[in-house]
What we know:
Number of helices: 12
Shape: globular
Amino acid sequence: MTGMDIAEHEAWFLDYARAQRALETDDPGPIDLKMRHSHEVLATARAIVAESPMTEEVRRASLLAALYHDVARFEQYRRYRTFRDRESCNHGLMGVRILKREQRLADEPRLLRQRVLTAVGLHNRFALPSGLPETSGLVTHVVRDADKLDILRIMHENLCGPEPYHPSVVLNLPDDPSLVGGAVLAAARQGRVAAYGDLTSVNDLRVLLGTWLFDMHFPASRRQFAAAGHARALLEGLPEDEGYGETRAALLERLAAVGAESAAHP
């Protein structure tokens, strides 16, 4: 079995997700969204590790962590009716508990198991803790990059599509153009990733998503961030008025520069 072959884990995850969906008698839409998200994050992680120099053990740990990173989202939504951790639970830590409860990694080598659990537990942190072992950090960065790249897709499809989006997709934030988060705009101007805790509106969320460009760890991730077009569409949806116009223009300019750099050095 190679590091890229995790078919048995994928089969278990699908069965688990389907069982969780069957328990959701009210609105299975958010469950379906997270099922697809997990599949897409795994696919993106495969692309990242295929292009990045790392051992087979690190590749396998990265793919397992990508598959399982949101394993807690199903129980979280059914219990709290939201995906916003600050209003429910830390879904990364809850995911670690679920994986241990289900003994999903019992057959994996001890170090690999530890790296997967570390990545699942830390993938949703605003920043990784100092002193994190290099290999664990590498695995976690694969998951964080792949996670963010697919969240961009989800937000693009919902915010730029013809159909109304589910409130949980935008963390139940109000779609009110008059609400402008000063801390979110300041982070964007300073080239920093904005914080979820500073969001006041859907437009703030668009800006936060654009700032993720500053936290892409791998060349493959940066290239996809620019090339996929999701971030550009989300940023172009911002108003060009006094509140967001300057930040909108600066982020779009930076995104174009990264796209040009990636094209010049594939």
